[in-house]
Amino acid sequence: CFGAEGRLAHKLFRDLFANYTSALRPVADTDQALNVTLEVTLSQIIDMDERNQVLTLYLWIRQEWTDAYLQWDPDAYGGLDAIRIPSSLVWRPDIILYNKADAQAPASASTNVVLRHDGAVRWDAPAITRSSCRVDVSAFPFDAQRCGLTFGSWTHGGHQLDVQPRGTAASLADFVENVEWRVLGMPARRRVLTYGCCSEPYPDVTFTLLLRRRAAAYVCNLLLPCVLISLLAPLAFHLPADSGEKVSLGVTVLLALTVFQLLLAESMPPAESVPLIGKYYMATMTMVTFSTALTILIMNLHYCGPTARPVPAWARALLLGRLARGLCVRERGERCGQSRPPESAPSPQPPDREAGPPAGPCHEPRCLCHQEALLRHVATITNTFHSHRAAQRCHEDWKRLARVMDRFFLGIFFSMALVMSLLMLVQAL
């Protein structure tokens, strides 16, 4: 029985291909267009090269059409209604991927076709496609991409070959999940375009692959370290000025952010639109730069020497008064919310000679009026002591002003870093 079936298949093959040629379009009427049904099944996303904007996919492509010269009566061949033959023996539509990104020939020419008795030809072939895809990284790493795959005939116009999609979207039943991209869908759309080279229309089918990036790895490796570093930068205002590490902390944080910025630039394509995480890095680096510059200015206020001018009256009233009470910057022994009343630097006074012993001759041999040199030395020591106290009080005022400015900018920059970090993390939700 099996031998008879094999002989019938050989006889059918000889009868079908006795006068058959695969070079011509298999239609009975040359004015009639041949309908080709195209179906695509997405199997795997192999690679998405953002820098070169190339998408590599593993697809299963099914094409179906009717060959008017490959028909037979199943009853004449023992009920044989379908045979499988090499695809190189039959006419095949020259449907290719228009936006392919390589010059290699498709690896689907060696598969067989299924030929039915009514002339229906089904050609299933796997293919690895490399297509160009315009990548928009403005929202990286929370971006979504749309990559189109356009299939159409290269030489046959719409009057000779018509392409129709099977269904409204590609099949995702056998898709292997990708670790970096989440597939949202792959809708199909038929278009009819007229190109400048030819007058007749050319139909094509475009499958649009909708992708959304899985941002968990980028959040852990690029975003979260930057958030922690940005929250560490404002703490330079909390360091004591005598530690000598305030400026060093800002410079170290700035260098760390520069390293992360370089790592990001290596993986992203050079484009006009800056990625979202790149904007966050730039904003954080700008904030750290300004905080370091303000730290240097505050250090200059802290180390004002004895020859510095007294704190201006407006700064004493506004900063050492109201702002110090609001920020709870107090001296030792003061309660929070109260501040030391402003003191004016006392000016050294010359000794009051009228309060001393009366001038003139004195009948006492040990009278102090005879010790004029001693009195002048005592007056000099008193004036020096008062000047030293005034300079010391002025220096303490500048140090307190530096502490107030440290506390004020600590709140400002920490709030800025927290708000920017929360805005970035909200994008991940």
Automatic annotation (TrEMBL):
Domain Neurotransmitter-gated ion-channel transmembrane: 222-424
Regions annotated as coiled coil: none
Keywords assigned: Calcium, Calcium channel, Calcium transport, Cell membrane, Disulfide bond, Glycoprotein, Ion channel, Ion transport, Ligand-gated ion channel, Membrane, Receptor, Signal, Synapse, Transmembrane, Transmembrane helix, Transport
Membrane-protein topology: Multi-pass membrane protein
Subcellular location: Synaptic cell membrane
InterPro entries in alphabetical order: Neur_chan_lig-bd, Neur_chan_lig-bd_sf, Neur_channel, Neuro-gated_channel_TM_sf, Neuro_actylchol_rec, Neurotrans-gated_channel_TM, Neurotransmitter_ion_chnl_CS, Nicotinic_acetylcholine_rcpt
Keyword Ion transport on entry: yes
SUPFAM superfamilies referenced in this protein's UniProt entry, alphabetically: Neurotransmitter-gated ion-channel transmembrane pore, Nicotinic receptor ligand binding domain-like
Chain spans, region Disordered: 335-359
Positions of the Neurotransmitter-gated ion-channel ligand-binding domain: 10-214
GO molecular function, one term: acetylcholine-gated monoatomic cation-selective channel activity
Location, primary (coarse class): membrane
Keyword Cell membrane: yes
Reaction equations catalysed: K(+)(in) = K(+)(out); Na(+)(in) = Na(+)(out); Ca(2+)(in) = Ca(2+)(out); Mg(2+)(in) = Mg(2+)(out)
Cellular component aspect of the GO annotation: postsynaptic membrane
PANTHER family: NEUROTRANSMITTER GATED ION CHANNEL
Family assignment from sequence similarity: Belongs to the ligand-gated ion channel (TC 1.A.9) family. Acetylcholine receptor (TC 1.A.9.1) subfamily. Alpha-10/CHRNA10 sub-subfamily.
Record's subunit section: Forms homo- or heterooligomeric channels in conjunction with CHRNA10. The native outer hair cell receptor may be composed of CHRNA9:CHRNA10 heterooligomers. Found in the stoichiometric form (CHRNA9)2:(CHRNA10)3.
Name used for this protein in its record: Neuronal acetylcholine receptor subunit alpha-10
Organism encoding this protein: Ziphius cavirostris (Cuvier's beaked whale)
Gene: chrna10
